[in-house]
Specification:
This protein is globular. It has 22 helices and 33 strands. It is α/β, with parallel strands linked by helices.
Length: about 675
């Protein structure tokens, strides 16, 4: 790659070593579910183009998603039996990667999920072999997702088999040309992590009791790989520095006082020393377990660089390189962490899904051109947990490169985009990149649509960056933007448009209860954008994502907040990722927000509201009432001969950022 490094970010582009392996820079594409090269003992070609895009744009090291030692559903089949995959397509991919780029590739190998196995999918035998799959260090451990289901203890023979398959698979990875392997993991509450923690491991044999015994499976794997592959073959460990749990299924929020139930930061020092004695070459760190997912998969509510303090702490005691992941996508934050010596390299996952050119743009100092990850999880982790392919809400071309390729238009058309929200801006951007004559029309005096309100809270810095990114892209591309200009039939005819893409969004719903028009009543958008002063007691009507986020933000300012939701539970939002909703629930509880689910609003009065649940009425103090009851689509339809009409986003069906961006992407890239 030609050297054109911004002097400011040069420290991120210095090489470093993992054992004797030299990595060309300090930026790592770390593992994500759905990016394993080997799934069910077959080669996953779906991730190859994504890996190559990131490599050609300069990422120093790729660590893919875990290739699991035995099938996650418990069917027969061990990873070291997939010899043809290692010696065939994986070896071919390694040859291509090393011939075309300087990027290194370390294969992640996983021993299993243990009690983190998603056992609540309703899969029946014989496909799901519960007796085989529902394992843990000790008998009776509750499943994370279905606590009523209990796991059995692994037998010694099964432990020995896991160790053997790990060693054999590492040897096959070396034969395939992989630059090393990473063991997954003493991390995130997976099986090896459960063995490592005293409150999950009650065994009385050589795999339980002392810390050395609890780590025995992991250290046996490390030593076995070193013996089979040679002392110089790099072996890494995916590692959660601190568990951040207060108990089984009891997560911990940033800044919260708690007694650690899992692995404490102090115990980590001893763990690291034992791993180093076994021969580990690097630690790929974050925090958290299945019981506190938001540390390992931080949503928008988590602070930037949320796992860096613990990584820096353990780095002080380590003799091997330490990486960290978890909201490290701000280049200035990454730079400071590496330049200060707090860590050796930054590990990014979702930022590289959102922008495959992240490394190249940082190298060139084009920070404002990086499309930011907003931590929504809708396209990545959320899709994965629904059994769908991993991609990105803002960049559907990630791992779907062929379907969403930007190709020059065969026929140049004049395109009008009606609506300047995120969907409209993305439509206009893609049209311009394809070579269409495109103009964007917005009826109001601002771009961003309803996303402006969503980006207003203090914790939504990345949302604000996204709006600035879109405005810059449209300006740099020279897309004409017409403000205060609704699209009408006359305008379409006057501009002689060939295509109209409608992204006009939605209109807020109203509940016509007595008092809805009182001065102390506003909707969530008005509150977020207009700086409305609030009294001490606030009622938020509507427990969807917007209502809960607004309620939490107000509660953090010291107000007493209540949520009134007519459905049986809050956050009943289609496709909302569990890790996001779980953390938001924890935040509401921590901030003492009262939740009235299954409750209808009857009347808004002076200083209180009246609600009704199960036939009983109740009053709740309310100096202010904020309505967050949703939206209705606002379709714009014309029938003009010779003009193609398409619509996407909330004007068709209320959705989220993914449905808006993917909807217009499908229109622009595959239909016009």
């Amino acid at each position: 790659m030609a050297e054109n490094i911004s002097s400011k970010y040069a420290p991120l582009f210095t090489p470093f070593k993992i054992g004797k392996l030299e990595v060309p820079n300090r930026i790592i594409l770390c593992a994500m579910g759905g990016t394993a090269p080997i799934i069910d003992n077959e080669f996953n070609s779906n991730c190859v183009k994504f890996f190559m895009n990131c490599a050609k744009n300069g990422v120093g090291l790729i660590i893919p998603g875990l290739s699991i030692l035995t099938d996650k559903w418990g069917r027969p089949g061990w990873l070291d039996e997939a010899v043809d995959v290692f010696r065939g397509p994986l070896k071919d991919f390694m040859s291509q990667l090393h011939e075309e780029t300087d990027t290194k590739f370390i294969l992640q190998l996983g021993a299993g999920m243990g009690r983190g196995l998603r056992a609540n999918f309703g899969i029946t035998l014989p496909y799901f072999n519960y007796e085989r799959a529902m394992v843990a260090p000790s008998d009776g451990m509750p499943n994370v997702f279905a606590p009523e289901m209990k796991h059995r203890a692994l037998t010694k023979d099964e432990i020995h088999k896991l160790v053997d398959v790990m060693i054999n698979s590492a040897a096959l990875a070396q034969e395939a040309g992989c630059d090393g392997v990473e063991i997954h993991a003493i991390h995130e509450g997976y099986l090896l992590d459960q063995f490592a923690m005293s409150n999950f491991n009650f065994r009385t044999d050589e795999y339980g009791g002392s810390l050395e015994n609890r780590l025995r499976i992991s250290t046996d794997m490390i030593r076995g790989i070193k013996k089979a592959c040679g002392a110089d073959y790099p072996v890494l460990m995916r590692y959660s520095t601190a568990s951040k749990t207060a108990g089984i299924n009891k997560s911990v929020l940033p800044g919260q006082d708690y007694v650690e139930y899992g692995r404490s930061l102090e115990e980590s020092i001893s763990v690291v020393r034992l791993l180093e004695e076994a021969g580990i070459d690097a630690l790929d760190t974050d925090n958290g377990t299945y019981d506190s997912w938001h540390w390992a998969h931080p949503p928008t509510y988590m602070p930037e660089a949320c796992n860096l303090p613990e990584a820096a702490y353990i780095k002080y005691y380590s003799h091997v390189p330490v990486f960290v992941s978890g909201k490290m996508g701000n280049p200035d934050t990454a730079l400071k962490a590496v330049e200060s010596g707090a860590i050796d390299a930054v590990a990014l996952a979702r930022p590289l899904l959102t922008d495959n050119e992240w490394v190249k743009k940082v190298r060139e100092g084009r920070i404002d051109d990086i499309r930011p990850c907003i931590g929504c999880h809708n396209g990545c982790f959320g899709r994965l947990t629904r059994g769908l392919n991993v991609s990105c809400a803002l960049n559907p071309a990630s791992l779907q490169e062929d379907k969403y390729a930007i190709r020059p238009a065969e026929t140049k058309k004049k395109v009008i985009v009606a609506g300047g929200g995120v969907g409209g801006m993305e439509a206009a951007r893609l049209c311009k990149l394809r070579g269409f004559d495109v103009a964007l029309y917005e009826a109001s005096d601002h771009l961003g649509g309803s996303f402006r309100a969503a980006a207003a809270p203090d914790f939504k810095d990345d949302d604000k960056k996204l709006l600035k990114w879109y405005e810059k892209q449209l300006k740099d591309l020279g897309v004409p933007v017409h403000m205060n200009t609704p699209v009408t039939e006359e305008l379409i005819k006057a501009e002689k448009a060939d295509v109209v893409i409608v992204t006009t969004g939605s209109a807020k719903k109203r509940i016509p209860v007595p008092g809805f028009d009182r001065d102390n009543v506003c909707d969530a958008k008005e509150y977020l954008l207009d700086g409305i002063e609030l009294g001490d007691n606030v009622v938020v009507v509507g427990g969807g994502l917007t209502g809960c986020e607004v309620a939490n933000e107000i509660a953090e300012k010291g107000k007493k907040v209540s949520i009134v939701e007519v459905q049986s539970d809050i956050l009943q939002v289609p496709d909302l990722c569990t890790v996001n909703s779980n953390m938001l629930r924890d935040m509401l509880a921590f901030n003492n927000v009262d939740v009235y689910a299954g409750t209808g609003l009857k009347e808004i009065c002076d200083g209180y509201v009246t609600v009704k649940k199960d036939g009983e009425e109740k009053t709740i103090k309310a100096d202010n009432v904020i309505m967050a009851v949703g939206f209705n689509p606002t379709p714009l339809k014309y029938d003009i001969p010779g003009v193609e009409f398409y619509a996407a986003g909330d004007c068709v069906e209320i959705g989220n950022l993914l449905t808006a961006v993917w909807g217009v992407s499908d229109i622009v890239l595959n239909k016009i």
